Amino acid sequence: MKFGYTYSNPLLEQTPEPTNLAWDVDKIYQDLGKRSQLQQLFEDCEINSPDCIVIRRLEELGDSVEEVALILSQFEKMGINLIAVEQNYNSRTKYSNTHANLLKLLNEIQQQKRSDRIRQGHARNRLEALPPPGKAPYGYRRGKAKYIIDRTISPVVKEFFDNFLLYGSLRGAVRYIAKKYGKKISVTTGRRWLSNPVYRGDIAYRNGEIVRDTHNAIISREEAAQVDRILRRNSRLPPRTASAPRSLAGLVVCGECQSHMKVTRVTFHRQKKEYIYLRPINCSKNHKCPSVSYQEVLESTIEKVCNNLPHAVESINFPFFDEVKNNLTEDITAQQEILEKIPSLLKTGILDEETAKLRIYKIRTKISQLQTQLETLPPVNLRSVAQAVSIPQFWLDLSETERRFYFREFIRQIEIIPQNSSWDLRIIFIF
Questions:
Q1: Which of 31, 160, 334, 416 is exposed most, by the fewest CB atoms within 10 A?
Q2: Are the C-beta atoms of 357 and 365 separated by less than 8 Å?
Q3: What pLDDT is recorded for position 252?
Q4: What is the rounded CA–CA span in Å between residue 310 and residue 320?
Q5: 334 pLDDT more than 50
Q6: Coil, strand or helix at 58
């Protein structure tokens, strides 16, 4: 007869499945946080002694090296073989080998327990929604229990986000704060700012879990959702075209050779006149595909967007998105109702304080996941926006930078299709 025993700390790991022992056992004892089942194991062993007890690691037997050594000696006195499957430890192997191996394992346990104490401290901070260790992100300073906005430098971060939302250019926003505030950051740092949950009022921990609304935000939820849409949109574009000055940069491909087309500018000596055209970057044909006038492609793009965008929006299955939105909203409401019940369960003694904190933490991270999914859905006013931008004058009144922003909100790709001595355009929208 074989018994199995597992212990897991709910702050540090998920409850293991019995099959994780990799052994067939007749009965398994599982402890979560406290070791009441370990005591039950001892009592059952005194009544009906098993052939062996299978565990994952020796450190699961106690919170310190002393506790582990005491448990091992108790099993030894009872004459029960102990097997730690993840440490290749068997108490019935040759004594000299077992003794040397045990000393080594006890040293490992001591180091592991020291690491666990640090991890448990961080885990308890997570349950309290406290900031993780380390320096506060730029724009904040550390308070006693949360991040506090630093009013002297937070305007730099705010204007960085505002510029990015206005023009959709990461490099442009980096250059803007460097010029206005003298704050020089790399493009990589700027990208981390844009995706950092801290600026949205949330805290992200190293385990990937996010707790929302832990402190005052620098940008609103609507702005954060727009930032995420722009980042997803720019990720589809060729490198360095997100901040290109021309609105069609990165969007146009040749329908013949499928090469992306580059915006090229030609000037004339001692003249203000210039010629802007699009040419394939990597044409694979022997007779290279011809270049095309940028202005003609721009005018044709505006015409086709005005004609085709409303029809493309109408083809979207909005009832499906409404259903998804309603389901997510209902799930969020259900989780919030559970959250509201926890104080009464704590008061009546159904939950102890540590279990209640762990449950609150898990519910808050679940709500955060659901709200993130909700925010990625298309805006509900997409039809009205499509009608507004389907007026040719709207596009003609915009600067190239502004047109670049709106084109990328709706267009995934523009294909130039050669037709004898002419060409045609095919607009591929993002939805």
A1: 334
A2: no
A3: 92
A4: 19
A5: yes
A6: helix
Q: Is 0.85 surpassed by the pTM of this model?
A: no
Count the neighbouring beta carbons within 10 Å of the beta carbon of residue 336.
Answer: 12
* Order of all β-strands in the sheet with 252-254: 252-254, 411-419, 422-429
* pLDDT reported for residue 405: 84
pLDDT over 60 (residue 396) = yes
Of 209, 414, 197, which Cα lies nearest the Cα of 304? Answer: 414
Q: Identify whether the C-beta of residue 350 lies closer than 8 Å to the C-beta of residue 197.
A: no
Residue 112, both tokens: 């592991």
CA atoms within 13 A on the CB side of 312: 19
Kindly state the helix (H) or strand (E) to which residue 43 belongs, with its residue range: helix 36-47
CA pair distance 233, 181, nearest whole angstrom: 28
Q: Which residues pair with 276 in a beta bridge?
A: 265
Distance CA 71, CA 304 (A): 78
Please count the CA atoms within 13 angstroms of the CA of 299 that sit on its side-chain side. 6
- Asked whether 380 and 267 are in contact (CB, 8 A), the reply is no
- Report the distance separating Cα 173 and Cα 103, nearest Å: 58
- Asked if residue 224 lies in contact with residue 200, where contact means CB atoms within 8 angstroms, the answer is yes
Q: Give which of 165, 222, 159, 166 is closest to 185, Cα–Cα.
A: 159
